[in-house]
Amino acid sequence: MAPFMVSTTGDSALSVADTDDYMSMTVPEPASTTCRPKTSFQRRARQKREAESRAHPPSKAELVHQAELNRDEALNTALPVTSKGFQMMTKLGFKVGTALGKEGNEHARKEPLGVLVKEGRAGLGMEDERKRKFRDEVTSGGGGQGAKKRETEGEFRERQAGKSIQRRAEDLCWGAMRVLEGFGCEDRAGGEEVDGKDRKAKQAAKKPTAHINVLWRALLWDRVEKEKETRMRYDLHQSLWRDPACDGQDDEEQDIKVWGTEEEEFEAEDRELDEFKSLEPAERLERMVVYLRQEYKYCFWCKFRYADGMMEGCPGISEDEHS
User: Fold this and answer.
1) Can you give the pLDDT at residue 25?
2) Is 226 helix (H, G, I), strand (E, B) or coil?
3) Which of 6, 8, 106, 221 could disulfide-link to 13, CB 3.0 to 4.6 Å?
């Protein structure tokens, strides 16, 4: 039996064999994009680089710096030709290297306005005010009213050295006061004993009053103030835990317990001590050293008490003589 044919006339006659068979359609495979496989050394190197990048993330300062670089690069880059804005300006007659607007204008701007990034939090005009003050200081030569005097490196070192000497002299003064206090306690212990019934005399001996030598009176003042503050804090803390049975009583007893009585207070002013404190630490230390040598035959620098007033073997009265 002959194969079935579609009887048509003209060039449009087609046979079944010429029609596309959708069952036999083939899709062309894409071009091979496979590359050569990486070696184990290359894989380890890549993994090492990735591990290092994860282990050392950029710091905040580095991120800020990178953002600033990207911003400056973007601001300094001209408008690309492929951008929509450039194409719109080209249709309106813009040409690269020419200005916008009417032709023949000599003062027309050919470059866009520059962008000044404001990084600080100061208000507008603050930077101009700072520049004006700086110009005033420079033009006045540092001698104008209110101008700050800029010290040199040598002056700064000299000032710091002076402060260090002052602190050391102050520390030596406290050490000399402790030595004087020790000798003063020995003198009181060697004298007549105070009657046990006379409590006020005992309390007066412990207080930094005028009968204490002014050379080491500040040490007792400092100690008494610290003890008083500690006691007040303790008593105030204890007074907060009041007994419920005392709720109906007057608060006067509680105030006396916390703040003390007038008999326990001592002089709030000591002009003689204030005058002594107003002296320079070096002068105060010199007075203490001389007093120790005259009264107790003790050299503060040798840390030794001699048998007689000649103090044989002591180099001198100053620290430099002992060095």
Assistant:
1) 57
2) helix
3) 8
